[in-house]
Amino acid sequence: MLSTNTTHTAYHAPVFEPTVDELAVLKKLELGERISLEDAAHAHVSKRLLERGMVVEREGYMAITAEGLQQIKRNDA
């Protein structure tokens, strides 16, 4: 018999590796593009960015955080 336990805890891997789509969203936000939470949901933007603190919600729009900027920071050799 299947368990009817509906309690779910979010698993977070020890290392966050953003997808190409997630990096593209962070880059758009860095460049000043406004992305509403509604548009993000329709475009299936990963909520991992919000869960990991890469973006925050401000007045109905996504805003990049310092952690998000760190993900797209260039590491020129």
Work out the number of β strands.
2
Helical fraction equals 25-40%
Major sheet: size, sense and barrel closure? 2 strands, antiparallel
Radius of gyration, CA atoms, in whole angstroms: 15 Å
What's the rounded overall pLDDT mean?
A: 83
C-alpha geometry: globular
Show unreliable segments. none
The order of strands across the largest sheet is: 1-2
Task: Provide structural commentary.
The protein has 77 residues and is of the alpha+beta class. Helices cover 36% and strands 10% of the residues. The chain is built from four helices and two strands. It has helices at residues 20-30, 37-42, 48-51, 66-72, and strands at 55-58, 61-64. A two-stranded antiparallel sheet has the order 1-2. Strand 1 (55-58) and strand 2 (61-64) form a beta hairpin. Helix 1 (20-30) crosses helix 4. The longest helix is centred in the N-terminal third of the chain and has 11 residues, at 20-30. The model has no long low-confidence stretch (mean pLDDT 83).
